[in-house]
Design brief:
The structure is a homodimer of 537-residue chains. Chain A has 537 residues and is mostly helical. Chain A has one domain: Na+/H+ antiporter like fold (Up-down Bundle), CATH 1.20.1530.20. In chain A, 72% of the residues lie in helices and 0% in strands. Chain A is built from 20 helices and no strands. The longest helix of chain A has 34 residues. Chain A is globular and about 60 Å long. At the A-B interface, helix 1, helix 4, helix 9, helix 11 and helix 13 of A face helix 1, helix 4, helix 9, helix 11 and helix 13 of B.
Chain lengths: 537, 537
Amino acid sequence: MPEISPAIHDPQGQEKQQQAAGVGILLQIMMLVLSFVLGHVLRRHKFYYLPEASASLLIGLIVGGLANVSNTETSIRTWFNFHDEFFFLFLLPPIIFQSGFSLQPKPFFSNFGAIVTFSVLGTFVASIVTGVLVYLGGVMFLMYRLPFVECLMFGSLISATDPVTVLSIFQELGSDVNLYALVFGESVLNDAMAISLYRTMSLVRSHSAGQNFFMVIIRFLETFVGSMSAGVGVGFTSALLFKYAGLDVDNLQNLECCLFVLFPYFSYMLAEGLSLSGIVSILFTGIVMKHYTYSNLSTNSQRFVSAFFHLISSLAETFVFIYMGFDIAMEKHSWSHVGFIFFSILFIVIARAANVFGCGYLVNLARPAHRKIPMTHQKALWYSGLRGAMAFALALQSVHELPDGHGQTIFTATTAIVVVTVLLIGGSTGTMLEALEVVGDSRDTSLGDGFEVVNNRYMTRFDDEGSPSESGFRTKLREFHKSAKSFSELDRNYLTPFFTSNNGDYDEDDDINNDQHHEERIPFTRRGNFNNRGLNF
Amino acid sequence: MPEISPAIHDPQGQEKQQQAAGVGILLQIMMLVLSFVLGHVLRRHKFYYLPEASASLLIGLIVGGLANVSNTETSIRTWFNFHDEFFFLFLLPPIIFQSGFSLQPKPFFSNFGAIVTFSVLGTFVASIVTGVLVYLGGVMFLMYRLPFVECLMFGSLISATDPVTVLSIFQELGSDVNLYALVFGESVLNDAMAISLYRTMSLVRSHSAGQNFFMVIIRFLETFVGSMSAGVGVGFTSALLFKYAGLDVDNLQNLECCLFVLFPYFSYMLAEGLSLSGIVSILFTGIVMKHYTYSNLSTNSQRFVSAFFHLISSLAETFVFIYMGFDIAMEKHSWSHVGFIFFSILFIVIARAANVFGCGYLVNLARPAHRKIPMTHQKALWYSGLRGAMAFALALQSVHELPDGHGQTIFTATTAIVVVTVLLIGGSTGTMLEALEVVGDSRDTSLGDGFEVVNNRYMTRFDDEGSPSESGFRTKLREFHKSAKSFSELDRNYLTPFFTSNNGDYDEDDDINNDQHHEERIPFTRRGNFNNRGLNF
């Protein structure tokens, strides 16, 4: 909250400050409008080389550059400094909530094992690999030398990928639901993982003596499970509230919506207040609220809240890129470390390969033949590892936390990586995905023949797969998958009747196999579509 | 924007701060939820002695008091200090925009002359009367003595009335449309007037030599007209944009809504950036956008934006009262000036009487017999002069601007006045209005016989009223009224066809007289009703 009006005894100064705020916010709104309009025009002309996020970043960079050249007043500039606190408290929550809220539960849960593997184990691997490589690079005098823990901090913050751009292109071009679920789920959970890892490493650094590796893992799991429980708990509470409060009558719509939109934020702040991870918490609140609470709302409110969260998150997303671009153009950077930047880019490419192909191998071990993740999907997943606002915000925090030169180096490198990946990968994703033949409207992609059987049928079939030739490891992996199936039954038989007003008529599952051939491709208007309950997928 | 994370080299400190923010915001959300639920329960039990605003203020006061007693950490407390900048930049704009947006143009414009008289001339009179009385009180040693200009500053800030509570009670009980339009219009425009007056006085104080009374008036008019033009200009621009951009197709709804919700804020910040009054500007943008831009939206977006602005402004309104209550409980007050508080309350009662009954007399001079404002309405208007957040925020600014004791005295007095009026007047408005027989569902109120003829018919009839016995002053006042009529024709013949897609089928006006007997009372769900275009009133 603003602390920009110190106790001055000069009304003109006060008025000037308010004027500066006005100009600053005015500029921001103009850039937002410009981004939306530009993004719309580019999309309408099917120009995929400059996605909306890249366009926003560019607009921010350009306006920031102009402001730099034209010596804009400091009082206006302060409105553009990227405040990590503002990002974490106000911009991030709606984006992450919308991720959970717009998540299609079926493909997500049917790929749950793979998603968790990629995002938890994979991000862990990527962070360690990046950290170790950067440390070795330092030892070998290839690049600026950082202490090992700081290398790991850099490794974890730079492993947070950004879903916005890639997913929007997937939606434009139409994509396989499973690939979409993988990319989506990975990038969402991965943020939560990266931020937890970063915080853990940062704690390790400050009490470097007392903690060992085991404690770090415990602490991490504690945070993750605690946050998830908090999020799910808040979600269930909201479901019960809306089930029994009887607010779904016409003239209470405003009250209903007010309460509904407060819950996600409540979940985020509850977790933060308990020193847990707000982003993990709000993500699960989003999933639970969409699955249970949402169906207890009146129809009008359902329409409204979907559009509301979509709107808020679009604004926040676009704003984040503009804000970042502007800040990059304005901040001091220590460009002396070009070597550091170059090698970091190389290392994150390697680390992401280790993550995706390593975890892909593991997942495929556990999956039956017709469900293997094809190499093209793995490549697409590897390629879609843009770095965005999360990495940027964490790097900005590291400037505050680490001794002078170190934080600055990490920040500059992260900045460069963000700009390069958003502009290059963002611009080329369309081409790349088309080259891999995983997108487009044609049906003759390189999918396995049983691949269309996405949801229950896959799960049902899965039970009879346990052949005696399996290794113990495989069996464990498969049991993990089975838990997803039993969750699905638990959901239908107990959770849904308990938390929602639909008693027993929850038949969307049964319809899926009938129309899945028509639904397999993600339609253009998926996210903007009002009437899409997001379940009959 | 937050500047609460200074460059600390301690990750734990950083995490602690984020935790404090989490706890602070969590508390705020819980109070919001509590207010909404409590307000709903009270309303359902038709308990009008504690309206929602008073309940919110009380909740804030209680929680603030508890936080004070329990020695809550400073890092959490900072989240509750009322920052006037936060109020003016983020909480106020949605509230004022919603006022303009939900305004029923017909009764507003048919009472336009009266509203402007009450809010511009009346507020001016009230400010001067309060200021002079406070100054005289000081001279006569009745109360703390302030310099004359500061008395006028106090007079203008304390003349800003708050519409929220009274209007919500009017809506609950059902009220005459003309009285509603008067109270509504007066309290909305009056805020703009009071803030402009306050700023002008504050400028006069800092360059006390160079300016005379005439210049003050000029400067005030400049601000007012400039802001109004800016607001109307932005509104018309948005109307043209939405008319020609072709965004009203289904899958562009999100883009349409994003752009729509950015315009009001753009208008506010444009005016602030130009050193004009954002609140006047956004009010007129609201009126214009509802009247023209709104009808260029797709039906879904129309529904959405109505609900969106209603939601945002409800949240902001409720939050303002909580925030104010909490801050009042936490701030230091110089309670030594009980005399000042007592006499100020007496003086503002007198000043508001001067405003309402004086202007009421003037307005009745100009109105034909069947349109006179009855005494009961004038009394209701006089009684509904709650002081709320606007007065509070300006008083907080005065603490920064004025030398120590003075600002503090003004602030304490304002705080006391806000609490007293919100709790006392808010709680008794229902009883009072019923005693005056201006509310309730019965139709036998003390209205003049021609009084139902609210809209066009009145206007049309009005032309033939100019009897030769009128004084020159009366004629002038009537001409002012006629301009409202010619505006109505200008609107129908030129503005509406030019700015909206309705070409010529703008027939809502013609239907009004047929069903006005059913529509005369404001229905319970007026503000929450989706399908209410707000024109067929």
